[in-house]
Amino acid sequence: MSTLTATHALTAEGIREFSIARGEPTFLTERRLKALETFHALPLPGRKDELWRRVKLEEADLDLEAASERAGAASVAIKANDAAAQAGGFWGPVEDAVKHSPALLEAKWATEVYPAGNPGDIINRKGGKFHALNQALFDSGYVLHLPKGTQVAEPFSADFRTRGGKDGIFPHNLIVLEEGAEAVVLETYNSANGDA
What is the separation, in whole angstroms, between the first and last Cα of the chain? Predict the structure, then answer.
């Protein structure tokens, strides 16, 4: 069966260094660390897990050592769309949201699909091992926030790129549409060498 190696990028020290280098607030670092704790505590999914029953992980090349050590190779190009800002919301990369909408991130980041901020039984947290890995190592992504009743016809567009090969790509996105808000979000994923 496949195993995952705990490299420096998959240690609490490595996560702290990565988060500090990105200038992230304390709450994001803490949520990364909670996700790392969950990642290490959960077993790899197996054929008895409904979502994974057709996936042969034992045959997969789970070279997380290469992927995690090279995390950060991904980038996201956000197509300009001023509709969110004009309505009092936000549209842009996560690193910009950290500066311009920290309260939104603190209230919403990693609180639904993977509740990293919630204490309790690690085994029963939603999301699973690989979602926890993504939350611990996220290196790119976007945030879209539209206030109540805001309806935007023009799509919001994000293009994720990686160098390809064994680079890790760990995007994490946050979409907050308040009551009555409507939007379309288009995501594309590509590698520079065309092997996406």
Answer: 26
> Which is more confidently placed, 45 or 99?
99
Q: Tell me the whole-structure pTM to 2 decimals.
A: 0.81
For residue 113, pLDDT beyond 70: no
> 54-76, pLDDT tens digit by residue?
877 766 656 565 555 555 556 78
Amino acid occupying residue 7: T
**Residue pair 186/156 in contact by the 8 Å Cβ criterion:** yes
Cβ–Cβ < 8 Å for 176, 101: no
Burial bucket for residue 90 (CB in 10 Å: 0-12, 13-18, 19+): buried
Q: Determine the Cα–Cα distance for residues 65 and 63; give it in Å rounded to an integer.
A: 5
Other Cβ atoms within 10 Å of 155 Cβ, number: 11
Say which residue the tokens 């409904």 belong to. Answer: 50
Cα distance between residue 82 and residue 135, in whole Å: 28
Q: Which residues pair with 186 in a beta bridge?
A: 157
With both helix axes pointing from N to C terminus, report the angle between 129-137 and 26-41 in degrees, rounded to the nearest 10: 150
Average pLDDT estimate for 161-184: 84
Buried b (16+ CB within 10 A) or exposed e, 116-136: beeeeeeeebebbbbbbbbbb
3-state SS, residue 158: strand
Q: Are strands 185-191 and 156-162 parallel, antiparallel or unpaired?
A: parallel
